[in-house]
Design a protein that fits this description.
Blueprint: H1 8-17, E1 27-28, E2 34-37, E3 40-44, H2 57-70, H3 78-82, H4 85-98, E4 102-106, H5 109-120, E5 126-130, H6 135-144, E6 147-151, H7 156-165, H8 167-171, E7 176-181, H9 193-202, E8 206-210, H10 225-228, E9 237-241, E10 251-255, H11 257-266, H12 268-272, H13 278-293, H14 296-315, E11 326-332, H15 334-346, E12 349-350, E13 353-354, E14 364-369, H16 376-392
Parallel strand pairs: 3-12, 5-6, 5-7, 7-8, 8-9
Antiparallel strand pairs: 1-2, 2-3, 4-10, 9-10, 11-14, 13-14
């Protein structure tokens, strides 16, 4: 019998020819600053676990407490029978933390972005989106069926021009949404949010920011880019993740009560996907308490990030526009980036190579992320191995 999916082999063969075919490495044990992948102990520079909270004793105990008290699963979709008291408690805690009227927890940051954009807009509306926004925003834009204008990355003149072109949509009584990442996940730069808000409001547009890589990293106690720039009350929709600095899994939307009420009734991930299990919810609640009570963890993250960036630049690597603990090592060629990553792994440093289509062709890189849990010895040893391997490949 013929394989109806055999045509997919053409794309896979192309990936193999370009040396871009890769399976994810397999983790054994905990995801920490040093971890075991594919049976090899390595310094882990590929985790989004910014604050090391996934191994925090309070987090582990909270997750266990959730299982003991409430069982392994929630048993239903939120709008049927799956809304537990802890879900409501977590949402109130997030809203208070973010200084918004309300919040709603989603199953992932991806569903929070895609589910929100696709729910609040129609084909008569328009979206103005930064060209480097996350795939979850892009998918949400497409699902909304709204018109889409993409402006060059962090180009405020381009944003203004796109909004001028969107004016007929507003004049016809429809909506315009300006959406941006708060921290761009592949480059580590911070959105020009004060300028974005100012320009968007001049045109009467809705403003949405995805703070996946800013949550727990930027702002007081890790409140994100809105707090970082003191823009409370000026950003209509804030999306965050519970899967990175928070150390567990999930996403959330924070904003007005009207927004949250609408998403409860129209957000498809809320309507059609089972809610978080108790262990996840309890651990997330604990994480926000830790952010408030142990802010020195964030200070340690930034101290490590500065040390590591300075080391890479001293060696001679191009780290792009990074302003955050996300620090790319720009390589250019995709196959070379893969070879660099493999060589590092063999020597005990795990850094994932990122190539097209995740980033544009010719802009392949290794994406490094340091965490608060790394020691100076971890980072010094990693820098030595990165320098040795980079020189062997002629990258510096």
């Amino acid at each position: 019998m013929a394989d109806a999916l055999a045509y997919l082999n053409r794309e896979l063969d192309s990936l193999r020819e370009q040396k871009l075919f890769k399976y994810p490495r397999v983790l054994s044990g905990m995801n920490g600053p040093r971890a075991v992948y594919d049976g090899r102990e390595v310094i882990n520079l590929s985790s989004n676990n910014y604050l090391g909270l996934n191994q925090h004793p309070r987090m582990i105990e909270a997750a266990l407490r959730g299982v003991r008290q409430f069982g392994a699963g929630s048993g239903a979709v939120r709008t049927i029978a799956g809304t537990m008291e802890d879900h409501v408690k977590l949402e109130r805690k997030i809203a208070e933390f973010k200084h918004t009227e309300a919040a709603l927890v989603f199953q992932s940051g991806f569903t929070a972005n895609a589910g929100t954009v696709s729910a609040i807009l129609t084909k008569d509306d328009m979206i103005v989106s930064d060209e480097l926004n996350h795939a979850s925003i892009i998918d949400g834009c497409r699902l909304s069926r709204a018109q889409i204008k993409v402006y060059p990355h962090s180009d405020m003149d381009g944003l203004g021009k796109a909004l001028e072109e969107a004016q007929p949509v507003r004049d016809a009584g429809h909506n315009v949404l300006v959406v941006t990442d708060g921290v761009f996940s592949m480059d580590g730069d911070i959105a020009r949010l004060p300028d974005i808000v100012k320009i968007a409001k001049e045109f009467g547009a809705i403003v949405m920011v995805d703070d996946a890589h800013a949550s727990g990293v930027l702002g007081r106690n890790g409140r994100g880019t809105v707090d970082h720039f003191d823009l409370h009350g000026q950003v209509d929709i804030q999306v965050g993740t519970l899967s990175k600095a928070i150390g567990v899994v999930g996403g959330y939307v924070a904003g007005s009560q009207t927004l949250i009420d609408y998403l409860v009734h129209r957000g498809r991930p809320i309507l059609f996907s089972t809610s978080h299990p108790p262990a996840v919810t309890e651990a997330c609640i604990e994480a926000f308490d830790i952010l408030l009570e142990e802010p020195e963890i964030i200070d340690r993250l930034w101290s490590n990030a500065r040390m590591f960036k300075e080391g890479l630049r001293r060696i001679g690597f191009d780290t792009g526009a990074s302003e955050t603990p996300i620090t790319p090592i720009m390589v250019g060629d995709g196959a070379m980036a893969m070879e660099f990553s493999d060589k590092l792994f063999e020597r005990g440093v795990f850094v994932v190579a990122v190539a097209y289509p995740t980033v544009p062709k010719g802009k392949a890189r290794l994406r490094t992320i340091v965490t608060a849990a790394h020691t100076e010895d971890d980072l010094s040893q990693a820098l030595e191995i990165i320098e040795k391997s980079g020189r062997e490949l002629g990258l510096v």
